[in-house]
């Protein structure tokens, strides 16, 4: 597969995958998801790769979530196809028998934070920002956040993150257990490289079994919840309330969701 949105480099046992859309803060569109899926599968199938490092191009964002311009065109039939696309990427990340390390600078929000949840470990620079955006743009983070986030940060904090769509600093993300480490921007590359090296020094068959074992419990929760919730989300694409969030984002204004709570 020829890549437009993703960079792929394999060297020294490490596959480095970069979301390469810095001009839109590495927002992901359908092609991006498909290229990420292909790149992850490529790393999974390469016997010389022992660890995957995932990052975003530039210093503004790891991933700012789904490209709203794409979401503005969704109706239920298109949404169902999109749900299958999401499922393919998360499945290859979860079932890959090699650790995936997220390297985060800048924004890691919305679908970007859900990609972060599918990484096995995450190291962030001090300027990183984390959060969910679904209800702010008329959507719901059913692709991981509603299933896995509470395991990382606790039930109460997960509800706060999803319901309020607040942004959290790297230090706050570390304190709540969302990420593993915070370092200066200058030290980020070296820190992640050292983490990858530490993993490569360990038994690959042990790492393989450990990752799949660690995933076993949350896999049951994720897969059992994803399919019905994916259909529910797909079914609201294009309706008036969904489009209020999308259009408000595009028009750079505050959405008026309160009108949907007024008496009919």
UniProtKB/TrEMBL annotation:
Highest taxon listed in the record's lineage: Bacteria
CDD domains xrefs: crotonase-like
One cellular component term from this protein's GO annotations in UniProt: cytosol
Pfam families the UniProt entry points to: ECH_1 (PF00378)
Biological process (GO), any one: menaquinone biosynthetic process
GO molecular function: 1,4-dihydroxy-2-naphthoyl-CoA synthase activity
Alphabetized InterPro entries for the sequence: ClpP/crotonase-like_dom_sf (IPR029045), Enoyl-CoA_hyd/isom_CS (IPR018376), Enoyl-CoA_hydra/iso (IPR001753), Enoyl-CoA_hydra_C (IPR014748)
Family to which the UniProt record says this protein belongs: Belongs to the enoyl-CoA hydratase/isomerase family.
Name the UniProt record assigns to this protein: 1,4-dihydroxy-6-naphthoate synthase
The species this protein was found in: Bosea vaviloviae
